[in-house]
Amino acid sequence: MTASSEQKLLWIDGAYVAAKSGEFFDTVNPATGELLAQVSKAGEADIDAAVAAARAALGPWKAMSGVERGRILHRLSQLLREHRDELARLEMLDGGKPIAETPEADVDSGADCLEYFAGQASSIQGEYQEVDGGFFYTRPEPLGVVGAIGAWNYPLQIACWKSAPALAAGNTVVFKPSELTPLSALRLAELAKEAGLPDGVLNIVQGFGDAGQALSHHAGIDKISLTGGADTGKKVMADAASTLKTVSLELGGKSPLVIFDDADLDNAVSGALLANFFTQGEICTNGTRVFVHESVREAFLEKLVARVEKLKIGNPADADTDVGPMISPEHGQIVLDYIEAGKSGGAKLVIGGEQVAVDGCDHGVFIQPTVFDACTDDMKIVNEEIFGPVMSVLSFTDEAEVIERANNTEFGLAAGVFTRDLERAHRVIGELEAGICWINHYNITPIEMPFGGIKGSGIGKENSRRALEHYVRIKSVFVARGAIDAPY
Ligand code: NDP
C-alpha cells in the first residue's frame, strides 16, 4: 500500500466493482495521515447487489459437504499464514496498531479461526431420538445470507471471526468493515478466491453507518452479526426486528479486574498491563476498572508504574513500539477528554495523562499509558468505556463488597481475578456478571473458548463450537413407523 492514488472498490460476486454512486472515501494511516487508498462507498443499490450475489451463491455452497467447505477454509487459513507479513503490515498501516502486535494478534488469530472452523465444518450434527411410535431427527441447516458488520480495532480478526463459522455452517456472507479500516477485509476476500471460495460466497461492502443499517434492514439477509458499540448494537437490533432477523452482538464493556491480597503481584501487574495497554487500550474486553486489595495497592502501583514507564510510544511501523496512535484524531480527543475528566473529577494521576508528539507522525494522536489511582465508583472514567490507554485503580477490602461493585455496571463483557486461592477464584468468578472471565490471566482469547458478553455487552458467542449454533437453524423431523391412530 504505497500509491496514494490507489482506489479500492467493493468486492461483490468474486470481483471488484465500483459503487453505483461513484463516490469514494479516504482511508488514511492513523499515525502519519498518509492517504492509503480511496475506497468506493456502498449505497443501498450496492448492498442489494451484494445480497443478491450472496443469495445466488447460497444453494451450491450449502450443498457442498462440510469436508469440502472445510478444505477451502483451511486453504484460506494457510494463505493468511503465507501472507502474514503483508497482512500484519496492512493492519498496522490502516489501523495504527503496533507492528509488534499485528502478526500474532491479528493475522494468526484470523488464521487460527479459519483453521478451527475448517475442522468444525464437517462435524455439524443433528440429534436422533426414538419417541411416540416413531423417531425424530434434527437437521442443523444454514440460516442463509449473513450480514456482518465490523469495528475498527481488529478488522481482519473480526472479518475472520464472523465469516469463518458462518461459512463453515453453509451460509454466505456480506461483510461491512468499519470505514476507518476497510483494507484487510478486501485482501481476505482476494485470498479467499485464491483458496477456491466460490464467487458470491463472501462479499465485502464498504461504507459508513448507513451501509450497516441497510444490511440490518435488508429483507434478503437472514442474520446480522455486529461488533461495535453498545448504542450501535441497540440500533442494529431494532432495525433487524423489522424482518425478524436473529442478531449476534459483540459490544463494548467496562470490565473489572480484581486483584486479591494473596495474588502473585508480578503476574497481576502483567495482567493489568495486558488488560489496559495492548492496542493502545482500544480493546473491548479491557479490564479498565482495576480493583486492588487495599493491603497490596501501594506495592501493586509501585510495580505497575515501573513497567508502564518502560512502554515505548512511537510509530507503529517501528518494531520496538508498544503504543501507537489512536485510530483517529477525533477518537484521540475523546480519550483526552476522559483523561481531563479523570483529573478534574478527583482521581489521582499516577503516570501518563498527556498527548505526546512522535517524529514523522504529525497526524497521529499518541497518548501516554495512563493510570489513575484513588478512583471511586461514581467517576465518569470508572463508568464509561473510554477505548484508550486509561486504567482506573480502585481500592477494596472485602470480597462481597468488590463483587457487588464489579457488577455495578450496565456492561457484562469480561472480568478477571488474580488470587492464589483457587477456591476463592472460582467462587468470585461464579458471582461476576461477565461473559468472558480469566483467572490469573487477562485478554487471552484462544479460538476454542467461547467469546461474548452478557448484559449490555451483547448477545451470542463467537469462537468455539458455540459460535456455530448462531449460524444454523434447527429443523425437527418426526418420522412415523406405523399406522396412524387418527381420531376422525
Ligand atoms: P461503532 O459501533 O461505531 O461501529 C461498529 C460498526 O457498525 C462499524 O462498521 C460502523 O460503521 C457500523 N455502524 C455504525 N452505525 C450503524 C448503524 N446504525 N447500523 C449498522 N451499522 C452501523 O463501533 P466502533 O467501530 O467505533 O468500535 C468500537 C466499539 O466496538 C467499542 O464500543 C468496542 O467496545 C466495541 N467492540 C466490541 C468487541 C467485542 O467483541 N465485544 C470487539 C471490538 C470492539 P462505520 O465505522 O463505518 O461508522
Automatic annotation (TrEMBL):
Quaternary structure, from the entry: Dimer of dimers.
PANTHER family xref list: ALDEHYDE DEHYDROGENASE-RELATED (PTHR11699)
Protein name: Betaine-aldehyde dehydrogenase
InterPro entries per UniProt: Ald_DH/histidinol_DH, Ald_DH_C, Ald_DH_CS_CYS, Ald_DH_CS_GLU, Ald_DH_N, Aldehyde_DH_dom, BADH
EC number: 1.2.1.8
Catalytic residue list: 250
Alphabetically ordered keywords of this record: Metal-binding, NAD, Oxidation, Oxidoreductase, Potassium
Top-level taxon: Bacteria
Molecular-function annotations in GO: betaine-aldehyde dehydrogenase (NAD+) activity; metal ion binding
